[in-house]
Design goal:
Elements (H helix, E strand, L loop, with lengths): L11 E5 L3 H12 L3 E6 L10 E4 L2 E4 L9 H9 L4 H4 L2 E3 L4 E4 L5 E4 L3 H11 L4 H21 L8 H13 L6 H8 L3 H6 L20 H9 L2 E3 L3 H14 L3 E4 L3 E7 L2 E7 L4 E3 L2 E4 L3 H8 L8 H6 L5 E9 L12 E4 L5 H10 L8 E4 L14 E9 L10 H16 L10 E7 L1 H8 L31 E3 L10 H14 L10 H5 L1
Parallel strand pairs: 1-2, 1-13, 2-9, 6-15, 13-19
Antiparallel strand pairs: 3-4, 5-8, 6-7, 10-11, 11-12, 14-17, 14-18, 15-16, 16-17
Length: 512
Amino acid sequence: MDDLASLRDGDRAVVIGAGLGGLAAAMRLGAKGYRVTVLDRLDGPGGRGSAIHKDGFRFDLGPTIVTVPQLLRDLWATCGRDFDTDVDLRALDPFYEIRWPDGSTFTARQDTDAMRAEVARLSPEDLPGYEQFLKDSEARYHFGFEDLGRRSMHRFEDLLKVLPKFVGLRADRSVAAHAARRFHDPRLRMAFSFHPLFIGGDPFNVTSMYILVSHLEKEFGVHYAMGGVVAIAEAMVRVIRDQGGEVRYGVEVDEILLQGGQTRGVRTVEGQMIPAPLVVSNADAGHTYSRLLPGKKRWTESKLRKRRYSMGLYVWYFGTRGTRDMWSDVGHHTILNGPRYQGLVHDIFLKGQLSDDMSLYVHRPTVTDPSAAPEGDDTFYALSPVPHLGHAHPVDWRAEAAVYREKVAAQLETLIPGFRDRIVAEHEMTPGDFRDRYLSPHGSGFSIEPRILQSAWFRPHNVSEEAKGLFLVGAGTHPGAGVPGVISSAEVLGKLVPDAPGGMRSERLAAE
């Protein structure tokens, strides 16, 4: 796939999906001089990062935080724009609070001395392990994020070159196993190993390379975009349109068109043909290869069925009336742990079993962003990891959703007592909604799980081996899920695709 000369026959490009990965890809293509058309079946931008509005409340459906904002600043700079002029990004302090059933807590912050104090408060004997864990995390960040995560891994020889480094960093060890080697206290083991859940990974099976997230938090902080992540998506659309590109909503792609092994455009479900020699799919990689592309060779139905997918998500969004000054001890991000950690994770990922107990991630954006609710009110969402729909006996959410919501509510009462009497607007999403809204295989929340043999070269590549002129971005491809991952996938795309014919750049860049 190194010979991309055929792409120079035209300057048109189609991007399937207006998620953050697809919009970032469109921006980079626009900066290279392509005339880009972005198509999305939803009624607005953002994909999993979109939002809905009910009775004055904004419910941000997907990601709520931004780490490594420099990736976004670099993306904007490539387009001759200033990210901070277009998006109001606020650094959070603290990042989040973790609460356990015994009443103990851990508050995560960027300041290293504050983090040392938190570790010492729970377990003084674990301070040396914490110091070593920071070094471990930084080493994996430089290798796994700055190196592998920002370049294509579609050549097998590239994998062979980095295998010794993988071995040296014990990539075969899981995140949880690595944390267990550095911490004695089970609460700290959880606090420094749960992060893979934010990108759909089982901490007890995902490669320890993902402890790099701890360094990301320490080095770059945790941020919130005023107006929610959808505000970033909307700003991206403005850049694309300023470049001369087009973003169309309510348009679903039915097939990627090929001729002689070369992409020739797409056909929508309404039968419209949109020609382009370059196609970028931000649809889930599983959906791209199982539904949109005929005649697959490597990513066959059989191979896709053998992939392990991330867990599903149950998310309850609700708005409460007159509560802005209530629950003063509840911050922007709270993690409520149930009585089990490893057992619950195994139920979700391995057994495919919906448990009675749960752990919850609770988002209260109105602590930082009053625009998420009417004046004096609050917006919340409570997210619970649950099994995806691909297990032998999938959960029937039509029967279980109401029962599960009551279980979630009972746990939330320990954090925000009396909240149910204050609810005036709500929305609910189950794995079935993720399947239907985002066309996510098995209703998974984050596409293919980032296990070691489903990462780097083993993951669907950014440049497809199935057809010339076809590229993939987003959570299901390299480097993986999460806002930094999908933005980086577009950066990798930018390194693979040549400038549009004639070397034309966008008018904005040319003017500079």
